[in-house]
């Protein structure tokens, strides 16, 4: 890892959580009322601990969102609205990736292609530039990188190790070798090494196996991952193979990681389509971990696992069943900003 650049872990102190409010012009239109309830619950939870910065497409949407949040008794002193006309609300993938650079920051602006050109993404690809122009990052320089990479596709321990999946990066860059991708990620993200998972996927996930649906670093050389203990489930063989991959990983000093397998929710099917109900898609904030809840008997058990992996933090369940209808969950709609950014 370089002396001046460092990619902080998600559990380090944060300035705010960045989200984009859903509206009828996004893919949420068909079930907007349901997903708004999830966003309200999310902002309620975040603002108990730290600020939430909310992108809004126009003044009318800001007025509406503010009214909804006030009626839910959200602490509006911790809410900041940011105007920007976006395509959709998956800010984990279109939002900024922030490195610490000495006493300041560097904001990375990777190319966003909507997961390999699956959807329209022209406005979302300009999000980071627009936020920088509005001063959200203070004096931190924005570095544009013409390389498709989504925040949900990478996971760091804050100490020079990156975790990702080969399937996702290979889908985005089929002509690149693993060695080439490894070198690029280490250079841009200031990492000493990259750990690759060769197994793991979820039905209903259109990100091509983002790591944040499968496995996450936790403090103290730990990895939390989505397990499947049902031999009859179509995911069983693949997630068992992923668990073996993870068990074989070693820390920078050669030790096995401490492992925290998450329980498996019962299948959630919508109009014949299996939805990706992953508990690994949780969000870490100051003093708490927000975990997606799906109305399943495994919700409480998953929260108990996170309590062990993140001792000393509150574990807060956020109802996320509406989100998985659009193939993502809690972590996917958020992006954390490190403490001090924008000041």
Task: Describe the structure concisely.
It holds the Pfam family PAD_porph. The protein is 27% helix and 26% strand.
**CATH second-level architecture:** 5-stranded Propeller
Mean pLDDT: 96
CATH class group: Alpha Beta
* Number of spatially distinct domains: 1
N/C terminus separation: 26 Å
Which fold does the CATH topology refer to?
L-arginine/glycine Amidinotransferase, Chain A
Q: What is the N-to-C order of secondary-structure elements (H for helix, E for strand)?
A: EEHEHEHEEHHEEEHHEEEHEEEEEHEHE
* Tally of strands: 19
Strand order of the largest sheet: 1-5-6-7
3D shape: globular
Class derived from helix and strand content: alpha/beta
**How would you classify the quaternary structure?**
single chain
How many helices in DSSP terms? 10
Q: What is the helix fraction of residues, given as a range?
A: 25-40%
Protein name: Agmatine/peptidylarginine deiminase
Keywords: Hydrolase
InterPro entries: Peptidyl-Arg-deiminase_porph
Organism: Pseudoxanthomonas kaohsiungensis
